[in-house]
Structures are given as structure tokens and as C-alpha cells.
Design brief:
The complex is a heterodimer. Chain A has a single domain, classed as Alpha-Beta Plaits, CATH 3.30.70. Chain A contains 7 helices and 11 strands. Chain A is of the alpha+beta class. Chain A has a 3-stranded mixed sheet. By secondary structure, chain B is mostly helical. Helix content of chain B is 48%, strand content 0%. Chain B is built from 7 helices and no strands. Classes of the chains: A alpha+beta, B mainly alpha.
Amino acid sequence: MSATDTSRRRFLTGAAAAAAGLAVAPGVFLMPLAQARRAGEPASSDVRWGLLVDTTRCSDGCDACVRACKEENGWEGVGRPRTDAQWIRKVKVRDPRTGHTQSLPLMCQHCKHPPCVDVCPTAASMKRADGIVLVDKHVCIGCRYCMMACPYKARSFIHEDVHDQRAHAPRGKGTVESCTLCVHRVDAGRVPACVEACAAEGGGALVFGDLKDPSSEISRRLAAHGAEEIRADLGLDTGVRYYGI
Amino acid sequence: MRGVTAKTGRALALLALVALGAMARPAAAEVPKPKLPPAKGEKCVEPTEVMRRKHMAYLLHQRDDTLRRGIRGGKYSLRECLECHVTAQPGKPLPTYGSPEHFCSACHRYAAVHIDCFSCHRDRPEPEAARAGGPAPADGLTGRTLPARTLKVLGPVEVKP
């Protein structure tokens, strides 16, 4: 066998277990981030947050990530599926030649070259130094250019008045919103809610971490197994990668 | 032309008289001062006089630092304002911004100021149960320092008011 296979085996057996994480279920580790940023310190371009989706562990009937996101960020449909907010959704893909189906979560891909940022006329669509793509709702005028520019349909426009928002996730009528990669949690040294939920009640398909740190779990998994970007042909260099598609 | 000018002059004089009359009346009799609900904390982040005049500037400045640069833990936080200033009166639920009993609303109504903050932001503190699921880490991950490499590049950033 090739050298790649050896390292892969070593990774699977030893390294993953050695990197101490919180065991949520046998073989499933909830990896804490290294640390929270100190008060007063800005997000740094020394890190780039990314998310790895292992689609082989993502099952069709499970929507733990979506439920966790709704609860964490306080978004919920109002029974109008065409316009309801949707920060993350489960997508079923089928290969028509073989009939093989797969289920995967789809959300803001946190691109390195985000088209939503390119088209925004007020600079409300923005990318933080650590790669998290956000909407600054203070200056969003609700024009929805970003929604048209996004190839992943990751953004939603809020059509209704919103009350009882979560304190850490402001959202209001007339602005566009999308997955924030749980920026409030990340800044406090925690992993996004979807990742936590997937580890606890799902298949442990989500790995969150720093793509620029070669020793992070996500980087090691990417180095060992590789992963795909959705619409890699667009050259957006997404922060969310999919293994097994 | 002359007739029109004379008319305008008379009208102006009349207006001036009316205005003077209004000024002569006791000012406080018109609109009662807002009744501000009691606050929870011991002391505000700045003296009351300063906060009255400058709270909007503090919040405006810090919101950009927080959202766009990712600086957390600043001195002026809307969330912290609400934690102290929006408190439940006995036997009543927490007031919303629509109510004159809401701290922010009480003053803004008096000053005829329209704000958009609460069309997106929550207008009162979250219940204790909800806060546990919020950003405060349950596993004690906060407070640790960044690796030396990062600190060297960045240096600590001072949060200015």
C-alpha cells in the first residue's frame, strides 16, 4: 500500500484518539477550540475558521444541526416556505445514473472570495479577518443583491417583524441574514451549535476548526482524507468542505 | 409690492409676540419629565450626565468594533445596558420597548427620538434558562491566552471609549 494509506490508518487509529476531546459517544469526540479570544482583541487573519462535513456520517432522517441552529439563533419559519428564513437546511442529493442518494447540511460556505461581499452596495456583507462571512445589519439596506449572488442560496431576507430575538443573534425585518458560524460562540472559544448537536445526537459528521493550523483536527482530517467544495469550479475557496460527495 | 411687504412685516411681528409669550410661560409645566424605572447595577459604566449625552456615540462606535473586527468584551454593550436598566416591576413581566415603562423608551418618548436598535436587537434581558445556552462557555474555555505567535503579530488592542 502507499504511504498515504499508512498515514491515514495511523490517523484513524491513533492521532484522533490522542487529541483529547470530550467524548460524547463511543468514537465521537467533541473537540473544543483552543481558546477564547481575550477581551479587546480583534479577530485575527492568523486563523481561518472552517467546517468539514463528513457526508458518510450524515443520515437522511436527521436534522439535529438545523434544530440546534434554530434554537441557538432564534430563527423559525412562519409557515411560508418560499420566503421563510433558513440559515441551514438539509439537502438530499441523488446521482441519477446510479440512484445513490446522500444527505448533507447546506449553509453559508464562508468563502474566501465571497460573491455576496463583492456585490453589496453598502459593505454590509463582509468577511471578518478570521474568514467568517457576516451581514452587518446596521448598514444592510435589504436590497438582496447578495442573495442573488450567492450560489448556495444561503441567505434569507426577513419579511416580518421579529420579536424576542436571542441577545447574541440580533435579526430584524428588512435585512438579510445567514449562518454566522455561531460567531458569538467561536469568539468565546466554543464550537458552533450545529457541530455540538451533530456530535451529541447526530452522526458526528461535523468538524469545526482552524484551517490554517496544520495540527487542528479539521486540517488533519483534510490532509488525510481530502474533501470537496460544492461548486469548486467557481473558485470561491469555501470554508465549508464536504467529504464523501 | 409695498402693501405685501407691510403685511408680511405685521405677520412677523405678530409671530414674534406669540413666540415671546410662549417663552414666558413656565417650561416645565408642558411635558412631565420621564419616570425612569430603577436600575439593577450599582453604578453605570460612565457618570449619568455623560451617558445621557453620549450613550449613542459609545454604542455606535463599539458596534462596528464588535461586529466587523470581532472585538469582544468592550465597555459599552447594549446587552449590558438592558441587563441593568430593564427590570421587572413587581407582578409585571419585563417591559418591551413599546412600553413607556421601558428604560430606553421612557426617555426617547420624552425627547421624541426614534431609534431602530430594537427592530433587530432584543429589547430586554434573556431569561436565566436561555442565557445558559448562550455564549458563556460552560466548560471553562474562556480566559485563556492566545498562542504567543498570534499575540506577537497583533499585540493587545486597547478599547477606547
